[in-house]
């Protein structure tokens, strides 16, 4: 699939900035004592936010220690090689919070099967849902980990990693605010106190498709949901691609020592379209590859009750920032369609609907009413998270 399908947002006479590569930003500039360095970082971030929606971030070891990354990475092949029975003990269908293990081919994007196997894991949290509460309070809850005895130390390695990446995410939010002409705390109204927040990650394996496979969809075109995603590309495989304003797919080839950061639909709506949520997808490793691709995204959430369209959440941006958005234009060719519900629904409800569409079997067990709404003909043949 190389050509973009046109949607309502197609703009054939596109003018203004487009991108053909993804900028690399040096995080250490943002914490430098030299104000010129900090200003340079903010200006590069402004361009990435408004015109690209993606960036690579280098030099983050002051927040995410290299040894923490290395330790997590060392567990990843072992995690997927656990006996199937151990993985099945923590399958996602056990969890109303959509956390746990999904076997290969269990997930749908835009109704098509993704060719990936994954563990959805999140920062520690208890479920706050009580009878009578909205369903979406239940999208946050305790993660499921494999038994400590079968992979000793993994849980600690993952929790340490998640905690450090979450810290980077929270600091990055203050930089985003500044790049949008707001004070550093300008986006804090979208967050609850840290103890009442949950951020989710995944550990993902994209296997080499077998010769008979007619699909190279690792994960289909989509937008991410929240404010930002921080992605570790563990292996050197190409495969992640990002859609530019003209609808062309641009490679986000792994750069060692960097994270990929991209912005989600909630941030796009909350910033009146100034920050771009950019469509992306992952292609399976090429047929001649001898190893799978691994990645670890972390989705940095906003609070469950936030309805970005509510008057109390409206932000005022300086005219020069709005001008940059207008010069870019609000139209782009895209293959992605998801998460437009942020326009009307609270963030938790949008997340829940996204999860229902991706994991229908989990929804059927835990959210039967929503399941019927999205899958009136019952469970699709594919797309069972196990
Ligand atoms: O695996 C990757 O590189 C990206 C995955 C992704 O886009 C997602 O899970 O939202
Ligand atoms: Fe994504």
TrEMBL record:
It comes from Tetrapyrgos nigripes. The lineage of its organism: Eukaryota, Fungi, Dikarya, Basidiomycota, Agaricomycotina. Residues 193-302 form the Fe2OG dioxygenase domain. Pfam families: 2OG-FeII_Oxy (PF03171), DIOX_N (PF14226). Belongs to the iron/ascorbate-dependent oxidoreductase family. The keyword Metal-binding applies. Keywords: Iron, Metal-binding, Oxidoreductase. GO terms for molecular function: metal ion binding; oxidoreductase activity. This is Fe2OG dioxygenase domain-containing protein. InterPro entries: DIOX_N, IPNS-like_FE2OG_OXY, IPNS-like_sf, Oxoglu/Fe-dep_dioxygenase_dom.
């Amino acid at each position: 699939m190389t050509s973009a399908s046109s949607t309502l947002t197609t703009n054939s006479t596109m003018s203004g900035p487009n991108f053909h590569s993804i900028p690399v930003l040096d995080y250490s500039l943002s914490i430098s004592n030299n104000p010129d360095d900090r200003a340079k970082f903010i200006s590069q971030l402004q361009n990435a936010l408004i015109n690209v929606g993606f960036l690579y971030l280098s030099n983050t070891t002051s927040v995410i220690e290299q040894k923490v990354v290395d330790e997590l990475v060392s567990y990843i092949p072992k995690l997927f090689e656990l006996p199937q029975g151990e993985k099945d003990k923590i399958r996602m269908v056990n969890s109303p919070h959509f956390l746990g293990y999904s076997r290969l081919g269990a997930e749908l994007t835009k109704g098509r099967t993704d060719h990936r196997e994954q563990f959805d894991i999140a920062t520690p949290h208890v479920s706050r849902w009580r009878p009578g509460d909205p369903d979406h309070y239940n999208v946050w809850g305790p993660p499921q980990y494999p038994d400590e005895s079968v992979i000793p130390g993994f849980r600690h390695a993952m929790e340490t990693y998640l905690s450090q990446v979450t810290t980077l995410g929270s600091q990055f939010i203050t930089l985003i605010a500044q790049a949008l002409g707001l004070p550093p705390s300008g986006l804090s109204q979208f967050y609850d106190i840290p103890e009442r927040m949950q951020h989710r990650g995944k550990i993902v394996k994209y296997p080499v498709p077998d010769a008979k496979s007619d699909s190279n969809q690792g994960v289909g075109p989509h937008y991410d949901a929240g404010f930002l995603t921080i992605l570790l590309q563990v292996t050197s495989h190409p495969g992640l691609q990002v859609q530019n304003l003209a609808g062309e797919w641009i490679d986000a080839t792994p750069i060692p020592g960097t994270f990929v950061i991209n912005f989600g639909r909630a941030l796009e709506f909350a910033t009146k379209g100034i920050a771009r949520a950019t469509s992306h997808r992952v292609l399976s490793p090429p047929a001649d590859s001898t190893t799978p691709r691994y990645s670890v995204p972390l989705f940095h959430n906003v609070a469950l009750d936030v309805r970005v369209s509510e008057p109390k959440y409206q932000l005022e941006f300086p005219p020069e920032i709005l001008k940059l958005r207008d010069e870019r234009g609000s139209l782009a060719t895209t293959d992605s369609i998801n998460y437009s519900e942020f326009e009307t629904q609270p963030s938790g409800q949008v997340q829940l609907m996204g999860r229902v569409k991706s994991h229908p079997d989990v929804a059927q067990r835990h959210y039967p009413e929503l399941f019927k709404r999205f899958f009136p003909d019952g469970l699709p043949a594919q797309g069972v998270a196990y």
